[in-house]
Amino acid sequence: MNCLFVGGGSIAPEYAAGLPGSSLSLAGVVDLDGDRAAALAADHGCPSFTDLETALATVDAPLVVNLTSHAAHAPATRTALEADCHVYSQKPLALDADEAKALVALARDRGLGLGCAPGTPLGPSQRRAGRLLADGRLGPVGLGYAHAHVGRVTDWHDRPDSFLEIGPLYDGAVYPLALLVSWFGPVERVRVADALDVWPEREARRPSTPSHVEATLAFAAGPTVRLTASFYAPHRSREFYGLELHGDDGSLYLKGTGAMDDDRDGVRFGRVGREYVSAPPDAPTEPYEYVDAVERLAATVETGSPSRAGGRRGAHVVAVCNAIEAAAEGEGAVAVDDCGATADPPPAPVVRPEPLFDGSGAAGIRLPAVGFGCSRYRDGAYVERADSIATALDAGYRLLDTAELYGNEHRIGDLLAAPGAPDRDRVFLLGKAWRTNHRREHLLAACAGSREELGIDAFDCYALHWPGALEHRGELRRLAEKPVERQEALAFPEDEDGGPATADVSLATAWRNLEIVHERGWARTLGICNVSRTQLETVLEAGAVDPAIVQVERHPYRPRRGLVERCHERGIRVVAHSPLSAPGLLDEPVLEAIGAERGLSPAEVVVAWNVARGVVPIPSSTTESHVVSNLAAGSERLTAEEVARVDALRDPDFER
């Protein structure tokens, strides 16, 4: 779709930069400064103009992108709408709420689309924060603190006069306001506000409106938020466009309501009683570009349903700013017109993956890119894992690898039931029966006990921990609470000669016993762990239900290529335990070199390598920084050349 840029100032090149990768093309540029218009137009091979009406009559551009100075936004938008053009306006939509509402009404009456910046609620960090809210992690949200420290515009803008005339509300506060309205809907009233004229005496150019404003806003369907907008507080202060929300069950911190690029530490979550933990992206993200919101508006035009939701939100934000000014002038609490604004639909939930069946009997399931291992056995000793598992859940892990052998299922159940935990349908739980419980009665009892400890009706996947059976010497429930000697005696029984006390239960029989768990609805899918390719074939031949998951030790030294290929042929997902544990692996020069090129640790390279090969790694760590970085590595995409360099580390002895 052709578009006409009205205004060729400093923001126009930012919008124009995204055009080549979009469905939009620049048909012309208008600016009162003819040289500025001509310069931008020349870069894009289109005509330039100094008069808007002439440009509208000359070029074929159904969409106008209004990038004029703040005070000129409303008049330019009105002229374009009256010429039957759809409009996307840089913020603010207007400086007066009545005028902003009139523009929305004009667009509605003419069947035109009307959008308004900022579009950064579409940014990757903002969307990730929105998913945490939509998942109910915070519970009911009661309080918030928002900052818009625009800073000394005389220091960083070559033409600051427009900013100095309108103040920090209409240029800066619109960012947190637009995001909050997109999440919670309209502000109901301004409870209280104050404004200051603080400014350095040495500055010759001064704001003509208050340079620092604070207000307390009550949202009709959400929190009460304290908003600070300032030209005086520098934009390099600790808070630039930060937002902190507090709910009954947890708190959320977003580093930048106006951020365009992603930042693995840009979103942090802390459930009640726990410190904040970074919630990094776990899948690749694309930075937000200015033109993205314009392209979205154009898409609604193309479908015949021009959107005015952005215009309504922009009008409401103007009404909030007007009300803050009125309250600061001594009018007390001020009601705010909602201007028809509504909250955006919440992001699609990251729900528990459903099984997919291709019609051939082979089952494939969608899994998160990276999972979290919950074993207590680390570095030759048993350790408490409740804290690190809680950290993993708060960081955003949604696949937990559990087992009765780990002895901590009841603690995981407590974490999943605690305030601030993700909903059950947003966590994939993989459970495992230990090898002393391969007989039917023992296996069913083990599964029932694990479900009770975890507080769940059914596992997402229930697996045999090992293919070979050992003698049953007693139940393993709450193994972690027993003395270590007793743990070892129950889990690793010995015969009279001190060797493993095996049980006469074949792998085929054990698998058929496991299928009873599936028949009873105690597990949605089944799995098998620590198998060779030959043992996998035994299971495939013996059972009526194929495994959905095969979990094996896998890392660059032991890629298990043949097994992985066979699993993928059958639609079986491969989960890699101990992906980082091979001695010497993380000292490999190849991993260090790739990591140095990408700003990653060797461990992150290994995690990303597994993901690139379609394998789900489940690293286990008790260090918060490693818990977060391992998850974030799932968002990295190695090149084919980098994957091949890691592949070359394989040990030929482990190709089976």
Structural features, described:
The structure is a single chain. This protein is α/β, with parallel strands linked by helices. It is 36% helix and 18% strand. The strands form five sheets. A nine-stranded mixed β-sheet has the order 14-13-12-11-7-10-9-8-15. An eight-stranded parallel β-sheet has the order 18-21-22-23-24-25-26-27. It is elongated. Residues 351-363 have low confidence and may be disordered.
Strand composition percent: 15-25%
Question: Gap between N and C termini, in Å?
Answer: 55 Å
| Rg over CA atoms | 30 Å
Number of helices: 22
Order of neighbouring strands in the sheet with most strands: 14-13-12-11-7-10-9-8-15
Average pLDDT, rounded to a whole number, is 93
Q: Structural class, from secondary structure content? A: alpha/beta
Give the total of beta strands: 27
Overall shape: elongated
What are the low-pLDDT stretches, counting only 5+ consecutive residues below 50?
Answer: 351-363
How can the largest sheet be summarized?
9 strands, mixed
Helicity level, as a percent range? Answer: 25-40%
